[in-house]
Design a protein that fits this description.
With 156 residues, the protein is mainly alpha-helical. It contains 6 helices and 3 strands.
Length: 156
């Protein structure tokens, strides 16, 4: 089960960069990412790393997720830029490679997953917004967990 997955990272990032609440969410998430690196910055000192070295001043000045990905995430995983990282992270066009049946659910107002024509996702777009959709996600997760437990107990 996939919940609130960003199937097209390019469209998702464009959505998060729109003015208003999306941009505010983007800034908040970027701030959380920066703070998570600040807490463990000693792990990224040049003397402790063989190949990855981040410009921590640039990372700590990131105001958007794209800036953070450009200065930290992409280099950490060996990508020359965030664009190449986003291309590899994109699920659109690859869902057919999943070997097991998968339920993917996104809220209709999810700022990271933009509904686009021609998208090959298997997403169920809920007609509910916000909290009610969250409840539906938890309900669906519980159903999957109970089903898995039943299947595993039958195998024992």
């Amino acid at each position: 089960m996939l919940l609130s997955s960003c199937f097209d990272t390019f469209h998702g990032m464009q959505s998060l960069e729109r003015p208003g609440l999306n941009r505010m969410l983007n800034a908040h998430l970027a701030s959380c990412l920066v703070e998570s690196v600040k807490r463990v910055k000693h792990h990224f000192e040049p003397s402790r790393l063989d190949s990855f070295s981040a410009d921590l001043d640039r990372v700590f000045s990131s105001r958007t997720i794209r800036e953070f990905d450009s200065s930290f995430t992409a280099p950490q995983f060996g990508y020359p830029s965030e664009r190449e990282y986003y291309e590899d992270a994109k699920l659109a066009g690859r869902l057919g490679e999943i070997a097991v049946p998968t339920l993917a659910m996104n809220a209709e107002d999810d700022p990271c997953q933009v509904r686009t024509e021609g998208n090959d996702t298997c997403t169920v777009y809920c007609r509910c917004l916000g909290f009610y959709c969250l409840l539906l996600f938890f309900f669906a997760s519980a159903v999957v967990a109970i089903s898995a437990a039943v299947i595993l107990s039958m195998r024992l």
